[in-house]
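note to self: the first set is below, dont mix up w the second
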Amino acid sequence: MKDLLIFVALTPFTAPLLQAAEITFFASGVDPNDPSTYYNVQQGNTPTCWAASGGNVIAHWQKYNAPNAPAIAQSPEGAYAPQGDDVYWTYRSLYNGYSGGWASTLYRYWLGHHSGLGLNGYYPISDADGVLLVNKPSGSGGFYESYYKTMEEVQKVAWAWLDVGDILSEKNYTLELSRAIYYSLSAGHALVIDVKNHSHAITLWGASFDTETQLMTTAWVTDSSGALFSKTGMSKILINDAGEKLTMNGEHYAGISIVGRWVAEQTIDNAHFLGLNSDDVMAFVRSGVPIPEPSAFALPAGMAVLGLALLRRRKRAGLNSAGVA
């Protein structure tokens, strides 16, 4: 028994992997090394990164996390919801102008076109001079209105994390954004990230978080245009806390030419969530719920090692009693 007690006492020190300072999540079913497990539709020469990345998220949500997943939803007119890359191509063919926009608006059109969203389906945009324009996609949309019947219900599951810098300090904004992203990924949902002062959107499929600071440290993303990261697969990038907002440091793209400027970091300006109740997310981030320490799993793991030691001890005793040296 004495040697067993010594073994148990040393167990926490002989399992350094259990003391890791990070925890990692990927959206449901996603393997960063297997392109067949995620979506990465290409936008071509159109400014529709927001629709491409939003289409990726909708396609994933419909496959894994929609109310009737993986069944196919229908609009009030009976049209079936497109799947996979067809989400993006359907919206792109309906939308007039191919102008820049917001993934969260695509979410709301897809879920609740008839629920009074976006001026009864009209989509507000701004031209180069900041003048508000209005375009209206044709087609039905509202493929999930049998589940989300009002604008309020749709907005609770299809929304954007808006910049609240005028209410919170930049540091708090960074922390709460990290927590919201953690909440999304741990629930199995991918999301859209706006970067470069809202001038580009990419799809976030996975991330690691520091369990002490609760800040995101690593991200796995796809880029529908290849403007920042590879458009042929998933890129693993480092996330830094610049003291104001989270920044992405392209470890494989140290020099990126943007409007004649060479930059190495991109600020994360916004995140668009689909399939989460916004009230729950706000309650999660406002309450300051900490990210669980990986070391919380050390005790069960230690008990498993202890059980293995007891089993080996018992087997050894049995073999010895049978006369085997």
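second set (the one i keep forgetting abt)
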Amino acid sequence: MTSLTHDGFHRSRPASELRIALAGGAQNQRDAVKELIAQVREVDSEITDLGEHPAGYENDPDLALLIWLLDPTDHNMWTAGLRSMTSTRSICPTIALLPKRSPHFMQAALRAGFDDVLTFPPTSEDILRTLLRVSEARRKAQSLSDNQICSLVSVCGGQGISSLTVWLGFALQRILGKRTVLVDLDLQAASLSVLLDLDPEHTIAELADPTSPIDSIRLESVLSKHDESPALLAAPKRIEEAELVSATAVEASLKVLHDLFDAVLIDCGRYLNESSVVAFEHSDHVLYVLDQSITAVRAAQRFLCLYDNLGLQHRPQLIVNRYRSKDVVTLRSIEEALQLPIYATVPYDETTFKQMQTVGRDFWHLSYATNVRRSCETLARKLFAPEAEKAPATKPNLLSRLFGIAR
């Protein structure tokens, strides 16, 4: 299905549709190319005719393909013309159409910046191959763009960051089917491996060598995995090894993990350093975790002041952990003190927390952890699948409800 427009890209269209612009050449030549594109049934597309001289056109940042019919007698202006079309938008593939097959002009078009050169009129096979290649490239890019990094932090101790990181990791993996990895940047406490009941053979300290690039093969070799739990990039085995982990190594690791996994959850701990800032810079979400204590609220104020001074892109989102509805410190008072809305709450459940620590099981195996489980499922959807946020949470089975009544 192909639709033609002549006035821009502002009409609503399917997200999967390729937006194609035609420029240069005579009207009958552009019409011939439109007809060839319209015959391609494998790819939905929408064509905008920019005319023979598209200078000054307001470009669409979501343009998928630019096809330009070039005039060989004007080859000295090809570079300037292409730059005028690509300077104000995201770079998309550009195809040059030449009136004849000339090695000299083909080379000139490639040097001007075009990605490929075809002869006019192009064959139907040329058009099909071009559209399929662009469509697949955009599909892969969109898949990577869906991957997200989320940092959890609190400068006040005892807020349950590590527990929440693990719970959220299980929720993402079990409920949303996300390939999830946890990164332990609380390098001294190293709590994530304890909560996952792991004794890591490899840790992030093995990535400290600056002479070896951090690629997917090297990174996957130091990840820990156990049963159905998320993967883990563990903290160093010894505290003194924490000094070996540089911000540069952390940044390189996060870039690779972003490509390997759907969701990257970072336990930043309570001590801020250069690696913490790197994590914040690369995160799609920064979750600041606090409870309903005066000291936690005061620490959050200090953190938010520092965060504002750093000038980072994403505003932190407040998570009230171990929430009690009857606590003297209410959610409203926290919001007023921090001038920031509460993003989510996780209910107080000390029994679940202790069971996870002593038994080493996640709360999907604990019949009485219903409230915590539902809260983490809701938070996971809100962060990583906002379109499914209103979907019903996992319904507890009969045994779970009976245990809840017994309590």
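remember for set 2: DSSP finds 14 helices and 13 strands in the chain.
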